[in-house]
Amino acid sequence: MESVSSPEKERELTSKAFTKLLAELSADPEIAGVEYEEVRRRLIKFFEWRGAFFPEDLADETLNRTARKIDGGEEIEKNVIALALGIANFVFLETSKHPDSRRATLEELIPVAAPPERRAEDDDLREVCLRECLRSLPKESQELIIEYYRQEGRAKIEDRKALAEKLGISLNALFSRAKRIRDRLERCVTQCAKRKLSGASVQRPQA
Fold first, then answer.
1. Considering only CA atoms, which of 52, 64, 81, 59 is closest in space to residue 8?
2. Which pairs with CB-CB distance under 8 Å and at least 24 residues apart come from 56-60?
3. Most confident by average pLDDT, 7-11, 119-123, 174-178
4. Neighbours of 173 (CB within 10 A)
5. Reported pTM
6. pLDDT at 44 over 60
7. 169 with 94: CB under 8 angstroms?
8. 60, 133, 135, 146: least buried by Cβ within 10 Å?
9. d(CA 107, CA 111)
10. Contacts (Cβ under 8 Å, ≥6 apart) of 26
11. ∠ CA 173-106-112, rounded to 5°
12. Residue closest to 86 by CA, chosen among 100, 97, 75
């Protein structure tokens, strides 16, 4: 039975575990990729139907846990989707206790706020603040967080793997680094919005 573990531990994923998950879907790599996307699509629908915030991230987390279960020797009684849906129930119960719609919005806005040519006066306050906060980050942090949230679906997974390899770190280390930047941005955006509402200017994000 799936048990609730610490968030950091639950997000650890190795290439070996991911490869085993794909192998369970099909011995043919191309077919396995298609099957993976189908399982992910069904998981996204699962979370959407339940009104969960950021269902795509929850689907990815569920697949990560599923891969770790398989890598750990979990027996698959029916098929991968049945195992994944069982795990998805626990993921949903965990997240429903701690919903965070603000963070989901921030993640969705990061790629939108990145292009410098957008006119700030045409955007809402939160997007204006996010753009200012992004500019206040070190260049390497800007590039990392934008790349981390740029793609969708399987492209996002592959891009994050490529980004981790480029930086010479593990996927878990990449997640931790992106989370620190995201948390920093969240604080900055919140402070910025308060200042702008009171007529003050944005300051650099606190470390």
1. 64
2. 56/152, 56/153, 57/104, 57/107, 58/88, 58/91, 58/92, 58/95, 59/88, 60/156, 60/157
3. 174-178
4. 13
5. 0.46
6. yes
7. no
8. 135
9. 8
10. 32, 35
11. 100
12. 75
> With 80 as the cut, is the pLDDT of residue 184 above it?
yes
CB 202 within 8 A of CB 195: yes
Contact 136, 205 (CB under 8 A): yes
Alpha-carbon distances, residue 173 vs 62, 94, 128, 147 (angstroms): 19, 23, 29, 15
Tokens of 195: 């200042």
Are the beta carbons of 192 and 129 closer than 8 angstroms?
yes
Residue pLDDT, tens place only, 125-165: 777 888 888 888 888 888 888 888 876 656 777 888 888 88
DSSP state of 6: -
Q: Are 132 and 192 in contact (CB under 8 A)?
A: yes
* Whether the Cβ atoms of residue 71 and residue 14 lie closer than 8 Å to each other: yes
Count CB neighbours of 120 within 10 A. 12
Give the pLDDT score at 113.
61
Q: Give the Cα-Cα-Cα angle 163, 173, 66 (nearest 5 degrees).
A: 90
